[in-house]
């Protein structure tokens, strides 16, 4: 019987010894203590409880259950937009055909918002457009280049249409100098003002820096056009009438010339560098200033004086500009 008691006594001691070895091994594999800036709840030794995340009862078969037909499509499908109930078209004249392109449509609510402006409801580009709008009253603005018009419309549940007459045309400009010589497009631009010559003095241009051959869409009416050749004083003006439904083409004739200035020690000699230049009118008004050996300037026809300063010495020469007569003006350093 004693041997039996000895075996019973050794079993608990072996179990304790095994648990001590296991505890030591686990202690060696325990993760390091997290830095102090990581909250206790995020530490590896104190995991976040999963009860609030996982359902109380989880059916593994539910994870493999296929979706019912149309169930996924129903969750991702966007709500259907109502069919268009308003068709808008625009024409240049009452008897013209609807425009196919180049139109910008903007539909506004008829009541101002908190900022005092009419809220924009819809915007579309092209020719004839088809819009879906809730029944109510709206302000429709149609723009065709610089021509535009607004109209109040009423939309009902039933489909309706409206055609807006712009009463607009277009303008294309070119410039020539001398005997029908077309100017370099990089040297001439146009400014277009509303009204006539006597009405644009205190107004900003409707369109500025228009290039030659560029088509500008405008409402029918009279416009004052200024053609600027170069960066000095060469410009011409004209009042031009734009007719509805037509392309008006106009050519403005410049009375100016391209001048190159040179300071030379003798006629036909090498131009002197580091020269300061001024060109003044007979009345003493300066129309051009530059520094260099070969400054170039476009000047309107008339009489001028070129003033050159080199090595603290001043040299002058008077000259005349004739329309289209581009040339060099030599000032003698003597």
Furnish the topology, listing elements before pairings.
Elements (H helix, E strand, L loop, with lengths): L1 H28 L30 H4 L7 H6 L9 E6 L11 E7 L10 E7 L2 E3 L4 E9 L2 E9 L4 E6 L2 E10 L3 E2 L5 E7 L12 E4 L4 E5 L1 E9 L4 E9 L4 E8 L1 E9 L11 E5 L5 E6 L4 E5 L1 E9 L2 E9 L5 E6 L2
Parallel strand pairs: 1-7, 8-15, 16-22
Antiparallel strand pairs: 1-4, 2-3, 2-5, 5-6, 8-9, 8-12, 10-11, 10-13, 13-14, 16-19, 17-18, 17-20, 20-21
Keywords: Signal
Strand order of the largest sheet: 3-2-5-6
Helicity level, as a percent range?
10-25%
Kindly report the CATH topology of the largest domain: Immunoglobulin-like
E-strand count: 22
Name given to the CATH homologous superfamily of the largest domain: Carboxypeptidase-like, regulatory domain
- Our measurement of the CA-to-CA distance between the termini, rounded to an integer number of angstroms, reads 143 Å
Architecture per CATH nomenclature, i.e. the level-2 architecture of the largest domain: Sandwich
In one word, what is the shape? elongated
Percent strand equals: 35-45%
Sheet/helix structural class: mainly beta
Largest sheet at a glance?
4 strands, antiparallel
Signal peptide: 1-27
Biased composition (Low complexity): 38-50
Keywords: Signal
Region (Disordered): 29-50, 68-93
């Amino acid at each position: 019987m004693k041997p039996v008691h000895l075996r019973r006594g050794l079993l608990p001691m072996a179990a304790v010894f095994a648990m001590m070895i296991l505890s030591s091994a686990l202690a060696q594999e325990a993760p390091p203590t997290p830095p102090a800036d990581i909250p206790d709840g995020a530490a590896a030794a104190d995991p976040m409880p999963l009860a609030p995340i996982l359902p109380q009862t989880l059916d593994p078969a539910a994870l493999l259950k296929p979706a019912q037909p149309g169930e996924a499509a129903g969750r991702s499908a966007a709500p259907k937009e109502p069919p268009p109930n308003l068709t808008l078209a625009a024409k240049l004249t009452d008897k013209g055909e609807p425009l196919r392109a180049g139109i910008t449509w903007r539909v506004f609510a008829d009541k101002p918002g908190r900022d005092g402006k009419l809220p924009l409801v819809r915007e579309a580009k092209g020719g004839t457009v088809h819009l879906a709008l809730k029944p109510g009253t709206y302000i429709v603005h149609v723009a065709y280049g610089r021509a535009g018009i607004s109209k109040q419309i009423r939309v009902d549940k039933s489909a309706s249409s409206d055609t807006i007459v712009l009463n607009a045309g277009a303008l294309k400009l070119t410039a020539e100098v001398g005997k029908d010589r077309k100017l370099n497009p990089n040297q001439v631009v146009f400014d277009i003002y509303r009204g006539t010559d006597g009405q644009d003095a205190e107004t900003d241009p409707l369109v500025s820096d228009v290039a030659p051959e560029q088509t500008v869409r405008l409402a029918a009416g009279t416009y004052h056009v200024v053609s600027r050749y170069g960066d000095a004083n060469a410009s011409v003006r004209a009042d031009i009438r734009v007719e509805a439904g037509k392309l008006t083409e106009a050519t403005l004739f410049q009375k100016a010339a391209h001048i190159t200035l040179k300071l030379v020690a003798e006629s036909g000699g090498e131009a002197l560098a580091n020269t300061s230049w001024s060109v003044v009118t007979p009345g003493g008004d300066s129309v051009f200033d530059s520094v260099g050996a070969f400054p170039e300037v476009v000047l309107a026809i008339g009489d001028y004086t070129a003033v050159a300063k080199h090595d603290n010495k001043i040299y002058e020469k008077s000259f005349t500009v004739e329309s289209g007569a581009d040339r060099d003006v030599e000032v003698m350093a003597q």
